[in-house]
Write a structure and sequence with these properties.
Layout: E1 6-12, E2 18-24, H1 35-49, E3 54-61, E4 66-68, H2 73-81, H3 95-111, E5 117-121, E6 124-126, H4 128-134, E7 138-141, E8 146-148, H5 162-165, H6 173-180, H7 186-191, E9 197-198, H8 204-213, H9 221-235, H10 250-257, H11 262-271, H12 277-288, H13 291-303, H14 309-325, H15 329-338, H16 356-363
Parallel strand pairs: 2-3, 3-5, 4-6, 5-7, 6-8, 7-9
Antiparallel strand pairs: 1-2
């Protein structure tokens, strides 16, 4: 296996075109999204976007366990804490700013990509992996897909545009997912608009072969999309998706988080006596999670209920950097991934103890609109 961060290939099509294939290449870390991966992906996507011979793009992860299990939070942690030549100058370092700026710019590029971009969301898709998948033209889930945004466990919050797209799910569902880090399967992903198709993982090779044989017409955007969709129609099989977990509990979830504030919603969820295993696991995750993260989930969904995706990314950038510099992110990663299974020492004992001043200290923008690193998004 090559040690390149991302593997690139181009598959020839019957009509003389090419399908660009990008493979995240870090299977040992479940394809955790590194800064080098982000930079390589953005450069290649830019090149493919203007190459008329490229008719579509396919994005996947190497190995059989994960598309992408999230951002490279260990690298972020080390840049904030370690000494030496690779140190990021501690909590005042620029690595977090560089990383999140590049990640969100790539995510936005995928959301607005001019050619059909398919994401093979097989296996684990978490955090930053969902950031890559969410904006795809066709988001392909399989029977093994497991999606989650468990940032509450590390003192962060659902970023990568989730402040925008979680709020566009059925009322209350996005807030519940953000508060609990709930795991979703392929059926849930379809129900909530996080996937477009379910395709058996065993059909991957046949699907790529069929895409090579497809008719892409005059190469206009509409013809490219039609060519891709026609092939996907023939390979989709939703029968392989496991039973949904969200839809059967929709009314219950909405009753837990509806028409209240963050502290009240958390209290309701933790007091819920349901014995359902999925709900119980979600409860346990929230109970051990970061109190200030719960407040940030709630506040960001409120703030971006009616904004643009670009606006959400801009505010997420400032907030994510502040969570690294001033918040509980370092402590959360230490407990979960560095010292492993050590109880985190959160800065607040309970969600209700997080004050407005605490929130504002994290949410006040670090840049003026004219200076913001993502000021050009949406223009």
């Amino acid at each position: 296996m090559s040690d390149l961060a991302v593997l690139f290939d181009e598959l020839p099509t019957r009509d003389g075109g090419r399908i660009g294939v990008a493979t995240l290449n870090a299977p040992k870390s479940l394809n955790a999204l590194s800064l080098e991966m982000i930079r390589q992906l953005e450069a290649k996507l830019d090149a493919w976007a203007v190459d008329r011979s490229v008719v579509a793009v396919w994005l996947e992860g190497s190995g059989d366990k994960a598309f992408c299990a999230g951002g490279d939070v260990v690298a972020l942690y080390r840049s904030l804490t370690e000494e030496g030549e690779n140190r990021g100058a501690g909590r005042d370092g620029l690595f977090a700013e560089t990383y999140f700026t590049a990640e969100y710019r790539l995510d936005y590029r995928i959301h607005t990509y001019p050619k059909p971009l398919m994401v093979w969301g097989d296996g684990i898709v978490m955090g930053g992996g969902l950031g890559l998948m969410a904006g795809g033209f066709q988001r392909l889930a399989t029977e093994t897909t497991r999606i989650a945004m468990p940032e509450i466990t590390i003192g962060l919050y659902p970023d990568i545009g989730a402040s925008w797209f979680l709020g566009r799910m059925p009322a209350g569902v996005g807030a519940y997912l953000g508060l609990t880090g709930a795991q979703l399967n392929a059926r849930d992903a379809l129900d909530l608009g996080l996937a477009d198709r379910v395709i058996p993982r065993e059909r991957r090779e046949a699907l790529l072969g069929a895409l090579q044989e497809a008719d892409y017409g005059d190469r206009a955007p509409r013809a490219l999309r039609a060519g891709v969709q026609s092939v996907l129609d023939d390979h989709e099989d939703r029968r392989v998706a496991p039973p949904g977990q969200v839809w059967p509990h929709l009314d219950h979830l909405q009753s837990l988080v509806g028409r209240v504030d963050a502290a009240s919603a958390v209290k309701r969820i933790l007091r819920d006596a349901s014995e359902d295993a999925w709900l119980a696991a979600n409860r346990a995750r929230l109970e051990a999670g970061c109190p200030i993260s719960a407040q940030l989930v709630w506040r960001m969904l409120q703030r971006h209920a009616h904004t643009s995706l670009a606006d959400a990314f801009r505010e997420e950038l400032s907030l994510s950097v502040q969570c690294c510099r001033e918040g509980d992110f370092v402590e959360g990663v230490r407990a979960l991934l560095i010292d492993k299974d050590k109880a985190p020492r959160w800065s607040h004992a309970a969600v209700a103890e997080v004050s407005e001043a605490d929130l504002q200290a994290l949410m006040t923008s670090r840049w003026s609109p004219e200076e913001h690193p993502l000021r050009d998004l949406g223009q």
